[in-house]
Amino acid sequence: MQRTLNDLWYSWLVTQLSSGIVNGTSDPVAGSGSSGGGGSSIAYENTVSNAGVVTAPGANAAIVTLAKANLPEGKYQIQVQAGYGASAEAAADNNINVRAGATVVGRIVAFGANTIRSFMFYYDLDGDTDLTVNAISAGSAGSVYVAYISATRIGDVTT
Questions:
Q1: Distances, alpha carbon 125 to alpha carbons 2, 13, 35, 109, in Å
Q2: Would the pTM count as exceeding 0.85?
């Protein structure tokens, strides 16, 4: 069976998370974020990133989190990659969103098992808001959700 790029990326991400390595380094900056169901987080000069894997998440459960303590006020370029493992049910399509605090700021749409979707957007953060990638409704028993998020501070909030 030929593997797709999405299958390979998914396998790579799961391997990296299980070994505590993300972004090719095993030396994450302490306190640079937290994860939903497990993962590692990395902080660079203006970028904070994190990845997580959750099995059978509950409704509104975080798959991965960037803690507000690491997101000072500013304008951010936010990149998200998220998807489902092979055991995720077809009904899970459209079941992942991105939130700044309680506000939904993005949604991953229409894809099936072993597929990763990516998107990027810009968002102004107030310095007191976590960024999370969440399951919208509960995943079925054995379903696996994966997510990676990075936020790069690109400037000050303009009014």
A1: 42, 27, 19, 24
A2: no
